[in-house]
């Protein structure tokens, strides 16, 4: 406790008496009638009206006591009662005289600093009161007087909360006055020095002041000052921190960053930070220095000739249809994923609150006459199932193929070509392979592999470092283009016998037994896949196959300060270029490129591959640039490439330097996946989560040309390869190619029991590049051709599932794979589902994007999941025809019971659904529309609720049912609104893993993704009428786990432990806020020049206001902030 006054004045009276005395003295000048003003208002009024020194001091003393003791709410209350203005007026009165009375001025300045600190309008108020330049003048007069200067500086610091005030001070040489107060390292006047630096930093909130500071050369001065204070040992953290804050502010401008760079700032910060790292307690300095270095690293254009994708595709309609090269992206466009949430702030604005748009069904987007063409996609309706009688009544077989020939004609009219399932295929089909025999087969293969000749493997790998499967041979004999139809297996076999490659021999000896995967089928499928660059090489993992690893893969723990360490390594490229190689070792566009014999070799010219360039930075470090989406210049995120020529047991650092998302699950435990050819040959054909030292942060790269505002992020990870000279593949997520889908469908077709399962794959339409978009129909064959059974078949509700509209979301394909296999299986639940529903699956809505390794778009550079409102038949054929097919189902009264589009989510954990609900959207938006009268079937919640119980990876709490404007053209919303499908969903799967349920803490793998597909099917049982019967009769083997804790609420990740962006705010140093600085100065108030130590102690002894009096006074001054007892207003 302390007091200001130097007189013997002691507070003995009550506030009422004080008020009385003021009233007597001031009389009519009192601004507020006593009856309606609080005690505080009386004090403030007294303060600004001025009085004798002692009274004023007492008021200031009381105010300070009040404000120091309580919370910020008291100060805000005081501000609301005109406290700032009163203090400013009092300051101007006291400071204006020729020789100001500092006994009053000083406490006024202190109070102003405390109050102004919380008053956002203090700058404007100070300007209006004429206090700004007055304070600057007081500072000039007292430059040599420590505590007075400090008090002025604090006031100036708070005034600078207004840009105009800061500019006013800057225009009146305030920057120079204050800069002169910052000396080289000295142990004296530390609070004043700190106050000067803080005030200087505060002034740098305006562009004008920053450019003035830069042009006057103060930046180099600040750097030298920092160096000097730094060199004097590990003390003065607060001062060093404040200096860094000045630099931080300066570097908001390009000129400021330039100045820091020119004056050796990066080197200086790099070196000082190295020493800071050695001593404890300097974290805050390290943090700020790292931020500064990141900001100031010169912007470096990506080493590309063009930002445009290396893959361009001539769109139908001539060159005009090609999107503008290097066009500046539309800033207003929503850059977040259509299925990913936007920041909370603008989220509610995005909700659709127009009831008409929510409820009214728009007109058809095409003539009704165009719909009947899709009847061919309902083969189960026209099929006569004569083959059912085939076995019992063979004489009726003559007309067996009638239905397929009619669909031929329709297909011809559509200029598209259905896949045909030959009768021979059906006859040959074997019973579904059950997992037990598969497992046995696999074990046999493994044991066989264990006895392999290891040497021959290594020689194969070393003589053939480009260990790839050539697809050319197969392609050479295949009919040109995709329209030649599928070849029969016999033909493929014959072809292969002519072109036996090393791989074939390997396959015979070491091929793993992978369920539903046949490398030869894969190669045959790939031979007919059309890509922009004309891929002629297969990636080994796609060809050979992948088995999920046996164990679980926990999320990777984040190494403390990993980002900082990586940034240091990046900064070292600039300050110490001795070990920098900077050599391009791979260029997608330059196949003639020679790379050093000891560097890694990269390759990506295969399906889904998308590495564009690799640059060796250091001996064991590579920068990687991903290819932009075809016909486009952005969306880099997905990656898939081959790497070889490695040395075992050496950590290699990889930096993907042109990522575009502002955050990534790589910051939250996700690892990329890696596949080793050698491991596969040794019987472990696994994609494994691999990599250490993983982090994702904003970097200093910018586009090669144009797109100035684009920001890039680095994904960095370190891989230590197990084998020398291996061939490995790395990917963002488990790859799943278009050829894999085709081979898989073909395999499934062969595996189903045609007497039980109606399985037919057809072509929805041709894609832009001329690939097929498969549509699969799965249902149960009727028990007989009798009327009743056929009627039941033709009245089964439809379930429509789609996926992979976004090529980078390969998790969608793995879920789809699980769904397909389950629906074709002999599992009793699958059988029930087939009997209850007709499944229509379009597993890959964007084949061209998947094939060409794009992340987001189709070949026209558009996000296909934004085209559903009015899809272009030429440019977005798959969406146009998928929608057309849904219209058709609608038109024949077979509106799907469920529609679900499978996706991957890059920012969240778990698997969850987005649905559509009018009521929930209106509630969430706070809409005034009365929802009481609105009727809505709550059935949209049944599937998510069931999944929550059944599927370990699923999280009900992450689901939502809101209709956003920005999502109005997505499949989910259009199918819901235009087709009237109540249960229309997007199923989102994490790329990372789960944070709830039994998979908590684990990364998701293909096994879990496929399981999710199976569980999705299980959840559909909840929609069947005889669900209870099904449960009791058939589902007993399904583990209905109640494994969830329902109180968890998943949201976006919390902020990353390290700043991903360059921070714009200068972080405050703990324990050095303005208040504590001011308080310490007040304690030593004016002692230097007046030498009144003794006096001050004496004052302390007297103590000013007694404790009890004070509290009673507080209660009156802040009536509504105090306890009930003090609620009576002071009058
Ligand atoms: Zn998606």
Strand order of the largest sheet: 16-17-19-18-20-22-21
Distance between the termini: 28 Å
Average pLDDT metric: 80
Give the number of helices. Answer: 48
Shape: globular
Low-confidence stretches: 1-36, 320-345, 392-492, 494-499, 1028-1051, 1086-1108, 1119-1131
Tell me the Rg in angstroms: 37 Å
Number of strands: 22
Heterogens: zinc ion
Note the beta-strand portion. 5-15%
Helix content: 40-55%
Largest beta-sheet characterization: 7 strands, mixed
Folded structure, characterized:
With about 1150 residues, the protein is α+β, with helices and mostly antiparallel strands. Helices cover about 45% and strands about 10% of the residues. The chain is built from 48 helices and 22 strands. The protein has a 7-stranded mixed sheet with strand order 16-17-19-18-20-22-21. A 6-stranded mixed sheet has the order 4-6-7-9-14-12, with helices on one face. Strand 16 (about 755-765) and strand 17 (about 770-780) form a beta hairpin. Helix 5 (about 85-95) packs across helix 8. The longest helix has 17 residues, at about 55-70. The radius of gyration is 37 Å and the shape is globular. The structure holds zinc ion (ZN). Zinc ion binds next to loops. The site of zinc ion has 5 residues, from loops.
In short:
This protein has 1131 residues and is α+β, with helices and mostly antiparallel strands. The protein is 43% helix and 11% strand.
Helix/strand layout:
Layout: H1 15-26, H2 39-49, H3 53-69, H4 72-80, H5 83-95, H6 102-116, H7 122-129, H8 131-141, H9 146-159, H10 163-171, H11 174-180, H12 190-203, H13 207-215, H14 218-231, H15 237-250, H16 254-262, H17 265-278, H18 283-296, E1 300-301, H19 344-347, H20 355-359, H21 379-382, H22 386-392, H23 402-413, H24 423-428, H25 435-450, H26 454-463, E2 469-470, H27 472-477, H28 489-498, H29 502-510, H30 519-527, E3 537-538, H31 540-544, H32 562-575, E4 583-587, E5 601-603, E6 611-618, E7 621-626, E8 640-644, E9 651-659, E10 673-676, H33 677-681, E11 687-689, E12 692-698, E13 701-702, E14 713-720, E15 727-731, H34 738-751, E16 757-766, E17 772-780, H35 787-794, E18 798-803, H36 810-823, H37 828-836, E19 838-842, H38 847-851, H39 877-891, E20 898-905, E21 911-914, H40 918-925, H41 942-950, H42 971-979, E22 983-990, H43 1006-1020, H44 1027-1034, H45 1074-1083, H46 1087-1090, H47 1093-1102, H48 1107-1117
Parallel strand pairs: 1-13, 7-9, 18-19, 18-20, 20-22
Antiparallel strand pairs: 2-3, 4-6, 5-8, 6-7, 8-15, 9-14, 10-11, 10-15, 12-14, 16-17, 17-19, 21-22
Helix pairs in contact: 1-2, 2-3, 2-5, 3-6, 5-6, 5-7, 5-8, 6-9, 6-45, 7-10, 8-9, 9-12, 9-45, 12-15, 14-15, 15-18, 17-18, 18-32, 30-34, 34-36, 36-43, 41-43
């Amino acid at each position: 406790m302390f007091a200001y006054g130097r007189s013997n004045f002691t507070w003995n009276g009550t506030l009422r008496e004080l008020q009385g005395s003021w009233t007597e003295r001031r009389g009519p000048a009192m601004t507020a009638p006593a009856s309606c003003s609080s005690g505080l208002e009386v004090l403030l009024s007294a303060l600004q009206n001025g009085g004798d020194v002692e009274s004023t001091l007492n008021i200031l003393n009381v105010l300070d006591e009040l404000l120091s003791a309580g919370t910020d709410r008291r100060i805000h209350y005081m501000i609301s009662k005109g406290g700032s203005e009163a203090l400013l007026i009092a300051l101007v009165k006291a400071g204006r005289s020729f020789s100001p009375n500092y006994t009053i001025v000083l406490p006024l300045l202190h109070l102003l600093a405390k109050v102004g600190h919380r008053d956002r309008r203090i700058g404007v108020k100070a300007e209006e009161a004429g206090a700004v330049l007055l304070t600057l003048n007081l500072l000039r007069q007292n430059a040599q007087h420590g505590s007075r200067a400090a008090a002025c500086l604090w006031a100036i610091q708070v005034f600078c909360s207004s840009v105009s005030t800061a500019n006013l001070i800057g225009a009146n040489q305030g920057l120079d006055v204050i800069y002169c107060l910052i000396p080289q390292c000295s142990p004296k006047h530390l609070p004043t020095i700190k106050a000067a630096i803080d005030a200087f930093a505060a002034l740098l909130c305006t562009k004008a002041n920053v450019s003035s500071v830069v042009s006057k050369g103060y930046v180099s001065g600040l750097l030298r000052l920092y160096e000097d204070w730094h060199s004097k040992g590990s003390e003065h953290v607060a001062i060093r921190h404040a200096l860094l804050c000045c630099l931080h502010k300066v570097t908001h401008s390009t000129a400021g960053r330039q100045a820091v760079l020119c004056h050796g700032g990066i080197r200086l910060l790099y070196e000082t930070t190295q020493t800071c790292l050695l001593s404890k307690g300097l974290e805050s300095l390290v943090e700020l220095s790292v931020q500064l270095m990141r900001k100031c690293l010169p912007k470096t254009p990506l080493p590309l000739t063009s930002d445009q994708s290396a893959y361009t595709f001539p769109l139908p309609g001539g060159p005009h249809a090609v999107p503008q090269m290097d066009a500046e992206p539309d800033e207003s466009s929503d850059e977040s994923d259509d299925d990913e949430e936007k920041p909370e702030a603008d989220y509610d604005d995005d909700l659709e609150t127009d009831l008409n748009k929510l409820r009214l069904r728009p007109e058809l987007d095409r003539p009704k006459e165009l719909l009947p063409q899709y009847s061919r996609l309902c083969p189960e309706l026209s099929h006569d199932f004569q083959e059912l009688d085939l076995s019992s009544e063979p004489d009726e077989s003559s007309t067996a193929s009638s239905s397929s020939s009619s669909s031929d004609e329709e297909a011809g009219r559509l200029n598209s070509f259905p896949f045909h399932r030959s009768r021979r295929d059906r006859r040959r089909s074997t019973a579904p392979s059950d997992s037990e025999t598969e497992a046995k087969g696999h074990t046999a293969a493994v044991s066989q592999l264990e006895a392999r000749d290891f040497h021959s493997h290594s020689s194969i790998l070393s003589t053939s470092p480009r260990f790839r499967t050539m697809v050319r041979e197969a392609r050479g004999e295949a009919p040109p283009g995709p329209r030649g139809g599928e070849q029969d297996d016999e033909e493929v076999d014959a072809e292969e016998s002519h072109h036996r490659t090393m791989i074939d021999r390997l396959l015979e000896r070491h091929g793993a037994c992978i369920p539903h995967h046949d490398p030869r089928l894969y190669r045959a499928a790939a031979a007919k896949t059309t890509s922009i660059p004309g891929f002629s090489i297969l990636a080994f993992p796609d060809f050979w196959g992948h088995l999920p690893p046996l164990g679980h893969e926990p999320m990777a723990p984040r190494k403390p300060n990993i980002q900082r360490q990586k940034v240091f390594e990046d900064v070292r490229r600039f300050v110490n270029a001795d070990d920098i190689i900077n050599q391009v070792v791979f260029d997608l566009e330059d196949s003639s490129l020679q790379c050093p014999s000891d560097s890694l070799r990269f390759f990506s010219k295969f399906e889904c591959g998308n590495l564009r360039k690799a640059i060796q930075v250091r001996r064991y470090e590579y920068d990687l640039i991903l290819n932009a989406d075809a016909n486009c210049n952005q969306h880099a995120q997905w990656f898939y490439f081959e790497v070889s020529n490695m040395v075992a047991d050496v950590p290699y650092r990889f930096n993907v330097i042109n990522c575009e998302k502002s955050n990534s699950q790589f910051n939250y435990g996700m690892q990329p996946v890696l596949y080793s050819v050698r491991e596969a040959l040794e019987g472990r054909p696994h994609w494994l989560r691999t990599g250490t030292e993983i982090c994702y942060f904003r970097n200093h790269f910018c586009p090669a040309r144009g797109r100035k505002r684009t920001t890039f992020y680095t994904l960095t990870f370190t891989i230590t390869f197990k084998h020398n000279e291996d061939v490995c593949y790395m990917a963002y997520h488990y790859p799943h190619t278009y050829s894999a889908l085709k081979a898989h469908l073909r395999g499934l077709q062969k595996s189903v029991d045609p007497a039980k399962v109606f399985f037919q794959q057809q072509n929805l339409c041709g894609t832009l590049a001329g690939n097929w978009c498969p549509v699969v129909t799965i249902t149960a064959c009727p028990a007989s051709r009798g009327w009743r059974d056929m009627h039941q078949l033709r009245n089964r509700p439809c379930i429509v599932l789609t996926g992979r509209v976004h090529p980078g979301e390969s998790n969608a394909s793995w879920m789809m794979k699980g769904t397909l296999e389950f629906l074709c299986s002999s599992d009793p639940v699958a059988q029930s589902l087939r009997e209850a529903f007709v499944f229509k699956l379009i597993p890959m809505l964007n084949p061209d994007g998947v094939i060409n390794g794009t992340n987001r778009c189709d070949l026209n550079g558009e996000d296909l999941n934004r085209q559903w409102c009015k899809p272009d038949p030429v440019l977005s054929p798959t969406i146009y025809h998928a929608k057309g097919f849904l219209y058709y189902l609608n038109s024949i009264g077979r509106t799907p019971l469920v529609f679900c589009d499978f996706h991957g989510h890059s920012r969240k954990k778990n698997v969850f659904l987005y649905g559509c609900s009018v009521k929930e959207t209106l509630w969430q938006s706070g809409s005034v529309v009365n929802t009481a009268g609105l009727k809505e079937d709550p059935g949209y919640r049944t599937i998510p609720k069931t999944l929550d119980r059944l599927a370990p990876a699923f999280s009900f709490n992450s689901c939502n049912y809101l209709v956003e404007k920005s999502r109005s053209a997505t499949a989910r919303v259009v199918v819901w609104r235009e087709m009237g499908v109540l249960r229309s969903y997007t199923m989102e799967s994490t790329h990372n893993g789960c944070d709830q349920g039994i998979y908590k803490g684990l990364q998701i793998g293909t096994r879990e993704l496929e399981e999710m597909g199976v569980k999705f099917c299980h959840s559909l049982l909840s929609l069947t009428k005889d669900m209870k019967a099904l449960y009791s009769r058939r589902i007993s083997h399904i583990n209905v786990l109640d494994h969830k804790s329902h109180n968890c609420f998943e949201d976006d990740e919390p902020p990353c432990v390290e700043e991903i962006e360059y921070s714009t705010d200068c972080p405050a140093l703990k324990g050095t806020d303005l208040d504590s600085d001011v308080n310490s100065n007040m304690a030593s108030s004016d002692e230097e020049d007046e030498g009144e130590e003794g006096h001050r102690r004496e004052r302390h002894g007297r103590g000013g206001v007694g404790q009890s009096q004070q509290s009673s006074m507080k209660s009156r001054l802040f009536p509504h902030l105090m306890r009930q007892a003090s609620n009576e207003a002071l009058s």
